[in-house]
Specification:
Layout (H helix, E strand, L loop, with lengths): L1 H5 L12 H13 E6 L2 E6 L2
Length: 47
């Protein structure tokens, strides 16, 4: 067990996403709307 925790991490500490991915996620979140009716919720994506 001690060997597992003492190994160096192979993941880089500076993880920077690409501009296209950030743009896609922002546009998706702007187009998404959630409507709640009573106990149900509907997700609508307006393209």
């Amino acid at each position: 067990m001690a060997k597992i925790y003492s190994r160096k991490s192979k993941v880089t500490k500076s993880m920077k996403p690409e501009k296209e991915i950030v743009s896609f996620l922002l546009n998706y979140s702007k187009a998404l709307s959630i409507i709640k009716i009573e106990d149900k919720s509907f997700e609508i994506i307006a393209n």
